[in-house]
């Protein structure tokens, strides 16, 4: 009886031991993407296409359109280049990571390279936005000095180089071993370096300081434009009316003198002997000159108001896209409770959306960019269709006679 019980126990132990490999033979079942992952990957792929196409159009428009080759658009081109590289090199691995269930299988070296490239390009994009804000601030507050002495494409090139050097300085410390990663970290996860010192350093340099600069610049531009509006509505119009009144009085006095001089014409005098109409003509020219000057001031304030509106949308989109991510990024090393696994990738994609919307902001507010985009896309498509559909031209009778090969 005991022998039968022992055999039964051995057989059950054999079945239990033999069933263990069947569970370990299919580890890939855990990595099959769910339908939500597929939907998110499709949406992210559309975002990648929009980012690449939009920023490519911005760069092509600046290169091919003479009206867009300005100093400000040099910074816009640098911004578009950084955003284009985000769409080409940073977003696609994130889509693969989403499809793989958040597991990184490309090795630690490629993980560090991808994270460093992400920080470099996003920081360059943010600092380019900051440079555009500073350029607009100087152009509005110091239009004469900045446009004549300090504003040149060479200076813009130097500022763009400084932007990329600063981005590299913020990115490079972990690569140089200054802030090593935690030893016990999960190597199947490719995440940012969460060393508290580096988090503070990178968050301040990549986001919070540029954000404060952009907010200050926008506030100053708004104050300057509001002050010019008030001076134009009150002092400018009043001074113009006073100067026109003085000129009107002078015109009346000139006309009175002319009437006194010509009230009793001498015998034999002709029209050539009368005083000329030059004083009245010069006064009218002065009136027209003042009105032209007033209209130029109004146009300048209108342009500055449009600039402030564009800058407001740029700064607002930048803050809305990146502020949630950097708040979580800065708080994670100091909070004992880890955030949900899906929160950091979601906020990262929200930040990358800023690289996709920047071309549409400039296209919406700039007629030159809209015209250049239309010329680069729809106009060429229409021309190619017209060329295909147009029948070949037959030689006319005159060209037949002039052709030397047929003589």
Automatic annotation (TrEMBL):
Which regions are flagged for Polar residues bias? Answer: 261-273
User: What are the G-protein coupled receptors family 1 profile domain coordinates in residue numbering?
Assistant: 54-362
Span of the secretion signal?
A: none
Protein name, per record? Tyramine receptor 1
Membrane topology, record value: Multi-pass membrane protein
What parts of the sequence cross the membrane?
A: 38-63, 75-94, 114-134, 155-176, 196-219, 308-331, 343-365
Indicate where this protein is primarily found.
membrane
Q: What is the lineage of its organism?
A: Eukaryota, Metazoa, Ecdysozoa, Arthropoda, Hexapoda
> Where, per UniProt, does this protein localize?
Cell membrane
Recorded GO cellular component terms are:
plasma membrane
The protein's UniProt keywords, in alphabetical order, are: Cell membrane, Disulfide bond, G-protein coupled receptor, Membrane, Receptor, Transducer, Transmembrane, Transmembrane helix
What InterPro entries does the entry give?
A: GPCR_Rhodpsn (IPR000276), GPCR_Rhodpsn_7TM (IPR017452)
MF GO annotations: G protein-coupled serotonin receptor activity
UniProt lists the family membership as follows: Belongs to the G-protein coupled receptor 1 family.
Fetch the PANTHER family from UniProt: ADRENERGIC RECEPTOR-RELATED G-PROTEIN COUPLED RECEPTOR (PTHR24248), IP13425P-RELATED (PTHR24248:SF199)
Q: Which domain of life is it from?
A: Eukaryota
- Region Disordered, as annotated, extends over 1-20, 258-280
Indicate yes or no for the key word Zinc. no
GO BP:
adenylate cyclase-activating adrenergic receptor signaling pathway; positive regulation of MAPK cascade
């Amino acid at each position: 009886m005991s022998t039968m019980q022992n055999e039964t126990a051995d057989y059950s132990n054999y079945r239990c031991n033999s069933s263990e490999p069947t569970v370990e033979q299919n580890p890939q079942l855990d990595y099959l993407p769910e339908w939500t992952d597929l939907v998110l990957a499709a949406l992210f792929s559309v975002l990648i296409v929009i980012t690449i196409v939009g920023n490519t159009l911005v760069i092509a428009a600046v290169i091919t359109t003479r009206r867009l080759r300005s100093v400000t658009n040099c910074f816009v081109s640098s911004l578009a280049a950084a955003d284009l590289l985000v769409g080409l090199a940073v977003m696609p691995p994130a889509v693969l990571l989403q499809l793989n269930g958040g597991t990184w299988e490309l090795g630690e070296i490629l993980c560090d390279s991808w994270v460093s490239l992400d920080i470099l390009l996003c920081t360059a994009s943010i600092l380019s936005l900051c440079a555009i804000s500073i350029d607009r601030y100087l152009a509005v507050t110091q239009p004469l000095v900045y446009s004549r002495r300090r504003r040149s494409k060479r200076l813009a090139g130097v500022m763009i180089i400084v932007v990329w050097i600063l981005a590299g300085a913020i990115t490079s410390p972990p690569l140089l071993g200054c802030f090593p990663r935690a030893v016990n970290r999960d190597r199947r996860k490719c995440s940012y370096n969460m060393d508290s010192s580096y988090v503070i350093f990178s968050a301040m340099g990549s986001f919070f300081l540029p954000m404060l600069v952009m907010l200050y610049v926008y506030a100053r531009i708004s104050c300057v434009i509001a002050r010019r509006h008030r001076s134009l509505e009150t002092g400018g119009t009043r001074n113009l009316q006073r100067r026109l009144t003085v000129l009107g009085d002078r015109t009346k006095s000139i006309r009175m003198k002319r009437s006194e001089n010509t009230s009793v014409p001498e015998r034999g005098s002709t029209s050539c002997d009368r005083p000329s109409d030059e004083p009245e003509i010069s006064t009218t020219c002065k009136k027209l000159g003042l009105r032209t000057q007033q209209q130029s001031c109004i146009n300048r304030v209108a342009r500055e108001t449009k600039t402030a509106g564009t800058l407001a949308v740029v700064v607002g989109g930048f803050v809305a896209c990146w502020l949630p991510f950097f708040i979580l990024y800065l708080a994670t090393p100091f909070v004992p409770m880890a955030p949900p696994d899906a929160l950091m990738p979601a906020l990262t994609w929200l930040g990358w959306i800023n690289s996709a919307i920047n071309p549409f902001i400039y296209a919406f507010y700039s007629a030159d960019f809209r015209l250049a985009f239309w010329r680069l896309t729809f106009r060429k498509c229409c021309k190619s269709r017209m060329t295909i559909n147009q029948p070949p031209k037959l030689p006319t009778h005159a060209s037949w006679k002039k052709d030397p090969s047929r003589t």
